[in-house]
Amino acid sequence: MNSLSLHLHLRHAAGYLELGELLADGDMPLPENGRRLLRRSLAELQLLPEPKRSGPVASLLEGRALRALGDWEAAIPALRRAAASAPDQLEAWLGLGWCYKRLGRLEEAIAALRAGLETEPSQPLLLYNLACYHSLAGDVSAAVDHLTQAISLDDRFRDLTGAERDFDPIRGDPRFVAATLVVV
Known about the structure:
single chain; 10 helices
């Protein structure tokens, strides 16, 4: 397979993935046309020869598609490959955390985001999600610490806390309230 053909398969897979993800509506089940698009993305990736199929780009696309399909366990190996091959790939770390969280494996979700922070220590999205996972795990101090860091890097994360259900376990804690207050 020549490099143009490889590139086209990756572009097609990315396009089907983006279209499929556009049809996702929060916590609602993915409509069948979205599922079809995500399966087409995976089919495009299967056409790639090794080692391209296991490379960082294809692995990330595969992991994203499987995650969007709700096959979190199957998404983990692909996202791990992507994160290992390209540790600065924020989306791989976030995807790993997302999958582990949905599988009820909070310790592994936290570990994945911590690993991402080793590469991107000032990434507010990683810090915010890490705060969410610590909240769910009942670790108020770690949750507030990471949330405070995220907000200090990007104040828009403060606005997200009001609707974020992951913070429900610690919402009444005075440390959380202090971290989310807007001081004028």
